[in-house]
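General statements about sequence and structure are easier to judge against a single worked case. No coordinates are needed to read the tokens, only the vocabulary itself. The sequence in question and its structure tokens are set out directly beneath this paragraph.
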Amino acid sequence: MKHILLSALTLLSVILCMSTGCSMLLKEPTITVKEIALEDISLSELTLSIVLEVDNPNLFGITFSSITGSASFLHDGEYQPLSTMNSGEVTIERGINTVTIPVHAKNIDLLKAGFTLFTDREITIRIEGIASPSFFGISPEIPFSDIKTIPLP
């Protein structure tokens, strides 16, 4: 009798999950770029800290298998590649979480634009990325992007 009841509850759970798209059980986290902080700059290298705010609305923590993306800078009206970023595996608790990802760039384009950057005293950075949480073997991709202008010392 217990076996039949357990099987019926399992079947009911599967049907409910399939009919609602699991939206009642799992909610997708939201990711925003909270801050792009300049850590260091020279003519040949730029070091940034990308601070992401992750809001996990679920009642339990989740794991991102990775948070990947790219950083580019605005030069002469176009975005030029600067660097890529990869966090590796990150555990996110329920609620609001902060994740900081360092970005190190050694870029010949940055050298070419260097004098303009120093005379403008600011740099506009575009961040585009994808976070890949793992929900019981399902790995949806959650995109995020932002553009921020940061002052140079």
